[in-house]
Specification:
CATH architecture: 3-Layer(aba) Sandwich
CATH topology: Uracil-DNA Glycosylase, subunit E
CATH class: Alpha Beta
């Protein structure tokens, strides 16, 4: 792994976003989702929920399965963290969970979904409100596909509809709308147990 650990700490956050790992640009900016994937991620929240990147970063604790850039994949893109790296950084994620005790966790991508829910297929994870536990704490989880420009998962209409459903679930979740200037949606949430 390369560089210093990167997180977007927000004290007393009720919502936590867990990504895969920082990329090389995050090392320069010293904040998560600082480049192309972040632009796409924050565009989803702005266009669908009316939440700007600045508002998101002020309210949502942003972290990752591993804390340091894992390096480049020889085939292109960033290397997926290995089991040793995931295990080594797991204690940091557990500590954050124990301290913040989030009510909602937004899992971004397959690795985060697998680590939090044990679900490796995005089609089975995205668009559903899940319930999970980690570090002695129970919380809701909504999975988003990774916003990487390399991902083609959203090219299928049914997958784009699952993304819309996930964003709707996040936008209606009480932890997300708490203390926000946005309209609180009172629709009941269905939990996948």
């Amino acid at each position: 792994m390369f560089g210093d650990p990167i997180t977007g700490a927000v004290r007393d956050a009720r919502v936590m976003l867990v990504g895969q790992a920082p990329g090389p640009r995050e090392l320069v900016d010293k904040r998560p989702f600082a480049f192309t994937a972040g632009q796409r991620l924050f565009r989803w929240f702005h266009e669908r929920l009316g939440v700007s990147e600045e508002q998101f970063r002020k309210r949502i604790h942003i972290c990752a399965v591993i804390r340091c850039f894992p390096g480049k994949d020889p085939k292109g893109g960033d290397r997926v963290p290995d089991a040793v790296e995931i295990a080594n950084c797991g204690k940091h994620l557990d500590r954050e969970m124990a301290i913040l005790r989030p009510e909602l966790v937004i899992a971004v991508g397959t690795l985060a979904s697998t680590q939090l829910l044990g679900i490796a297929q995005l089609k089975d994870a995205v668009g559903v409100l899940h319930q999970a536990a980690r570090a002695g704490h129970e919380f809701d989880v909504v999975v988003l596909p990774h916003p990487s420009g390399r991902s083609t998962w959203l090219n299928k209409r049914e997958n784009a509809e699952l993304l819309d459903r996930s964003l709707e679930l996040i936008g209606r979740h009480p932890a997300f709308v708490h203390r926000s200037p946005f309209t609180v949606h009172r629709s009941p949430l269905t939990v996948n147990r």
